[in-house]
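#structure-requests
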Amino acid sequence: MNLSISLKSQLLATKFYAPVALGHLILRPRLTALLNESLKRPFTLVSAPAGFGKTTLLSAWKQSLPAGNSRVAWVSLDEEDNDPWLFWTYVLTALDRQQPDHFTALLMLLQSPQAPPLKYVLAVLINQLVEETDHFLLILDDYQMITEKEVHMTLAYLIEHLPPQLRIIVATRADPPLPLPLLRAHQQTLEVRTDQLRCTAEETRAFFDEVVDVQLPDETIQQVTARTEGWLVGLHLLSLSLSERADPLTLLQEISGDQRDILDYLTEVVLGQQPLEVQTFLLSTSILEQLNASLCDAVMEQAGSQHMLQRLEQTNLFVVSLDSKRQWYRYHALFAEALRHQLEWTQSDLVPILHHRASLWYAQHDQTTQAILHAFRAKEWQWAADLMGRYPLLSLSVDASKHELIRFRQWLEQLPADIIRSRPGLCLACIKLLWVITPYPMLKTWFDAAEATLTASLTAQANKDDSHTILTPQVRQEQENLLGEVIGFRAYLLSFGEEGHAALPLCEQSLSLLSIENGILRSQVGMAQLIASYSSSANDAVAAIQSGHESSLAAQAVGIPGLVIGAMTTTATHMIGTGRLHETWRYIQQAVLLGRQLGGPQLPYVGWPLAFQAEILREWNELDAARALVEEAISLCKQTRSKLTSTYIVCGYVVLVRICLSRGELDAAYSALEELEYTGRSMDQPMYLHVRSLFTTIDQIRLWLAFGELNRATHWAEELDVRYQYGAPFAHEREEVGRARVLLAQSLPVLALQRLELVLQRATKGQRWGHVIEIRLLQALAYHMHHEVPQALDALSEAVRLAEPEGYIRSFVDEGTPMEALFYQLRKRDGKQRPTPYLDTLLSAFQQESMARAQAGEPTKAQPLPEPLSERELQVLQLLARGASNLEIAQELVIVVDTVKRHVSHIFSKLGVQNRIQAVKQSRELNLLDEER
């Protein structure tokens, strides 16, 4: 295998070996025949509690297969394999070991910085296997260790699309969340369960005859089988507990309770029969998950462990060999558990000492994870902190999986507070590693500790405190940079939330501490200034965008493409709110070109700016191009392996929701919103709420209303009055705009206008003209609903004035028929004074929209009416085309609402249509409308 050194160092070779069955095994032809059937089924599940011989059975069966049969790939799973990429790395490596170099390209693709989604990798694997002439059998042992949903989902995907060239066997103590019912329904699975694995009376007799060399009466065999319930480990323990003169039945009568009780009792008996040096070795090494001679020597602080391991193997004392060279072993899981219990009970003071020795050995052999685990079990806090400080994830945090991050946070939570406070560098590293998955109060504790320690050291130097060692200029600069980074990152996290105003002075303080050469950190502080200036009470979009540009320049100075693209895209995201679409497009294009100019087709990070290019295309009414671009963007975003991957993906779905709404694809918009919310749950919540406030707060309301879920939208608005409103002032502003939309849907224009006035003032003061356009449009609709047409046209005219230079279209068209009616009136008013090309463009877009949607619901061409409309029906039709509601029509014509409904029903019948949009389209084609009225 031509794998990279970094990949090899991640993998434990012992996991690819089927544990070697030691000692004599009884033949169980019924189970062998059953497993032979697995070669005819795509998937086999071997599921039973511990001690029923699952691993032993599969290992013995594997060794019994003819040489020309399937290539058998074995993977013994553990907790580490909950990382999806590591899980599939082991699987592909196991397959590659069976046919060297056949799967190496896939392995390298999986490990590359631009790794595609796992389903893509599996699709390539499936297609590659289809072309193979050889057949493979993949055995996944101890699958109960897997709890990560993505691993289950991807394995299920492989099983559902399994080619004939691959068969999969899963051994587990509990049924996994795989599509077992579907597999059963299609007769694609074989299941081997506890009842089949239990030893029969015949097998119990064979065990005592052939393995123990003790002949027992039939009645005793029956009682032993019944008492142990065919439990293979129980039989093994019983055999080790027997002396030459002991009666198995008498021994069994002394034991009561379930299998756990039997295990505890018999283990004590087994252990008590061993020589003192064997007991000492068993107890001392029981703290280890895996054993080899060097490790055991270190834990025991004596030589001779290789001889002892061979001795245990010869006596078959629950030792399982993990490789063909007999270098690594493990105890049977239940036996090890009982030994550890006995060790705690008899020599509790020795336990932390043994763990510390193991930790030192693992550290010396560069196995940091195991070293940290044993350090914690030893309660060696200083040593554990030292190990965590050099943990690989701290330098490779971009590629850390969620499982790794959660585990690291759990370690950190175990450290005493004073240990953390004394290590500001560790505090900051942990914050930067864990901020996406950790609540801010916990992060604040680490921030405070790091800042206090560094500030105290620098203050003492400034005061020339003799009690402190004088720092060299270089060390002092390093401490100032570290303090600047701590303060700057605190500002960044604060900038998203309700305390965003506090971030700006922190940013200034941070920049005063950071050296001018420290471009990476100065760029990150610029991001904090951007977000805080935009979202907080500062409400200054101009200053925000300027900070974003400065952040981008600082990132460019240090030449890190991903950082540059991130800074530029964050800036562009907020530029959209200022209404400067053409400038934003050009700025985003620079980020896209930067990514595409680098090695390979393009950096996955390019997906993020592409998503917002799609948003601008949507606004310019290029919906097909926007849809294609956002799908490409989401695909690229999913290929990134970063703590910010969720943010990139959420932004992609944010734009997809908006595009689907504009296209009238409501089900697709709803699905995209669900994906957005699912992904958002893995993000830092203040950041997620900020992203939602930029776009999705309003779009969710629009989607509910488009589905006719006014009650749901109303409930959302009512909740705003009773629950605590967490978030920045900008987020509250967007909620108020959403509330105004709900009020308009409830036909409450006066209340909507009251809400809109305050948010208009704030958006205008902040120079966020994109939001001003939206608010002005809602004002126009509210005035129109309240029969204040001049005010409605003035508000609409102001929105048009702001939108025309930037080519806005969808913001108007998405408001539907009422907005279209207002545009006809505005063109009538303004067309008398000057040409109105922009209004004509917008009205053309409205007409194309109406025609497209009407054609989707009513494809027939307009025909002359068999029965003409009455004068009153023409009046009603005219008001329908202006977007008036039934109530507004009744008030306009001084009739009751029921009469309006009757007229509308007659109009629909005569026109041969089913709704208002179709009616307006049909009447225009028949020239029934007076567009100048």
